[in-house]
Amino acid sequence: MQTEIFVAGGGVGGLALAVKLASSGVHVTVAEQLKDESPLYKGELLQPKTVAILDQMDLLPEVLQYGHKIETLAFQEVDVNPGRPPEEIGSTELTYNRIASTYNYSVMIPHEKIKEILRNKASEYGEHFHFIPGARFLGFENGQAKIKQAKETYAITADVYIGAEGRSSPTRQAMDVSIKRKDYNHHFLTVTIPRPESFLEGKIVTTRESFLGMFPLPDNEIRTVLLIKAGQYKAIKEKGLEHVYEAYGDLEPRLKEHVRAIKDWKQIQLMVPYTYHVDHYVRGNMALLGDAAHTVHPMAGEGMNLAIQDADVLGELLSWCKHNSKTYHSHLPYYEQVRRPRVSFLLKLSHLSALVYSYPYPWWRQLRMQAVQRMYDDDQLHVKQMLNTSGLGIWNFSLVDRAIQGSMLPVRKKNITDHQQQRYIFDETDDYPWKHTNWKG
Ligand SMILES: Cc1cc2nc3c(=O)[nH]c(=O)nc-3n(C[C@H](O)[C@H](O)[C@H](O)COP(=O)(O)OP(=O)(O)OC[C@H]3O[C@@H](n4cnc5c(N)ncnc54)[C@H](O)[C@@H]3O)c2cc1C
Q: CB of 382 within 8 A of CB of 94?
């Protein structure tokens, strides 16, 4: 079998790449090991940059139809009194509305739904899109991709091979890329439960030792993420579901009854966070995208977004190569040139957000409360945090910012104008620099 671009893995990253390529007339073949939907929970929060990319693919109306818009994230610090309502000792909120873009919101959407939307879109370009479900990519042999489907093994020849297989990537192995994994002192339990109709915005409730993140989904459901100490899963499970019901009720009374919809531990998924970032994305005519190249701590809700944003840049580059008669492999490094610094930045941001919730010391909690409050009080901090999280741009935190956050300097009185922000928002030249004649990349 012959194709222009072979993609191993039909997750969000591989499928977003397929939409970009097939819609611009590049022949793409995607081999996905699963035959059906995956039962596993994977990210559901689409950050603003991803929303913008999906809009460029003409998918925004459908995404909004099946998703739930989130504009605000509330942060509440509480002391828990078992059986009684939690005692609030601090609260603040951050809002995507501070971003100077029409994409100033995020969207919660079930992971399998976004995959379905992408797959259906790629299928509209049937002449250029070939999807092989139940096909496992085994590695390379004689420069060709080796695929196993049912009991048959066959080869696919392509101009470019993309590894989009997620965390365990045969393409990464073939590229001889090294990864250094970083682990954390906490794990998460995650489960979707029903929610009250009025629970519409994101919320994070924190105690000294834990937190419960709540992100509304459509159809009056809500994704919940409970932080636990690493290695505690078994002990918690032994205590039984009643213990989980109580923990939820103590942290968020609005979910006290709804949490009882969990009837079986099978509904609850254990999430073990870790991160890595490969030392190179490209080798010859092979490239990695999404989790095959980098895994991020889930705290800032970036993993799925980084995969789709990789796909956007890589898809644009490969389409441009085809339409401008440029060789693919000599231009692939430009993909890494654009994506690596952005991914590194968000990996660091997510890591810092994780650390904020990693230690139970009272002084650490005090610092955290101050820092979160100051992010709201100081508009520049607020804008930077939301813009950086959104993926729409990068505006680095300065030493002055950190001193303000740490209460060593007073809060600035002036608000940031949209015009000031624009300098830090990526435009076409930043996203696809190779297209511009004055680019020296
Ligand atoms: C438990 C969990 C919770 C997460 N929570 C969040 C979150 O809240 N927010 C967020 O943004 N991100 C989250 N993520 C991360 C997010 O799911 C990933 O970053 C994102 O799915 C990466 O997309 P991808 O396409 O690179 O990889 P994947 O989504 O992993 O897709 C890879 C695809 O390749 C297929 N595959 C694997 N090996 C082969 C092979 N050899 N041959 C053929 N096919 C193969 C797999 O079946 C899969 O369909 C979470 C991840 C996990 C595991």
A: yes
Question: What's the CATH code of the domain at 246?
Answer: 3.30.9.100
Q: DSSP secondary-structure letter at 425?
A: B
- Using the structure block, give the residue that is written with the tokens 């190569």: 321
In sequence order, which ranges of 283-427 are alpha helices (DSSP H)? 303-323, 328-331, 333-356, 362-377, 379-390, 399-405, 418-422
Q: Using CA positions, which residue lies closest to atom 2 of ligand 1?
A: 42
pLDDT at 283: 96
144 CA distance to ligand 1 middle (Å): 24
| Judgement on whether residues 311 and 402 belong to the same structural domain of the protein | no
| pLDDT value for 41 | 80
Residue 206 belongs to some domain of the structure: yes
**Of residues 280, 301, 299, the one with CA closest to residue 289:** 280
Q: Are 332 and 160 in contact (CB under 8 A)?
A: yes
Of 145, 141, 140, 120, residue with least CA distance to 63:
120
Q: Does residue 307 have its Cβ closer than 6 Å to ligand 1?
A: yes
- Using DSSP, state whether 380 is helix, strand or coil: helix
d(CA 15, CA 21): 10
User: Is 406 strand, coil or helix?
Assistant: coil
**Beta 144-149 vs 211-217: how paired, if at all?**
unpaired
By most ligand atoms within 8 Å of CB, the mutation choice from 17, 165, 169 for ligand 1 is 165
Tens digits of per-residue pLDDT, 45-78?
999 999 999 999 999 999 999 999 999 999 999 9
Answer whether residue 428 is part of any domain. Answer: no
- What is the distance in A from the centroid of ligand 1 to the CA of 166? 5
Please identify every stretch of the chain with a pLDDT value under 50, giving residue numbers as ranges. none
Domain that holds residue 291: 2-63+109-181+274-349
In terms of domains, do 162 and 284 share one? yes
Residue 188 and residue 268 in contact, taking contact as beta carbons nearer than 8 Å: no
Are residues 198 and 345 located together in one domain of the fold?
Answer: no
Do 168 and 134 lie in one domain? The reply is yes
Our measurement of the distance from residue 246's CA atom to the centroid of its chain's CA atoms, rounded to an integer in Å, reads 30
**pLDDT (0 to 100) of residue 38:** 81
- Indicate whether 280 and 209 sit together in one domain: no
